[in-house]
UniProtKB/TrEMBL annotation:
<dbReference type="InterPro" id="IPR024072">
    <property type="entry name" value="DHFR-like_dom_sf"/>
</dbReference>
<protein>
    <recommendedName>
        <fullName>RibD C-terminal domain-containing protein</fullName>
    </recommendedName>
</protein>
Length: 50
């Protein structure tokens, strides 16, 4: 069981993109814990499972 997700968002456009968790099959509710913006434009987003 995962109780926290850390996502890094990079400022780039890559086309269609790919699903991060395709095996889930349904939406999960997450609560944003913290967000950090770096000078490079990268974002770190920390989410907790609700």
């Amino acid at each position: 069981m995962v109780d926290e997700h850390r996502l890094w968002v990079l400022p780039a456009v890559t086309g269609k993109g790919a699903a991060l968790f395709p095996e889930l099959g349904e939406a999960r509710r997450l609560r944003l814990i913290t967000s950090t913006a770096f000078p490079s434009g990268i974002l770190e987003l920390r989410y907790a499972a609700s």
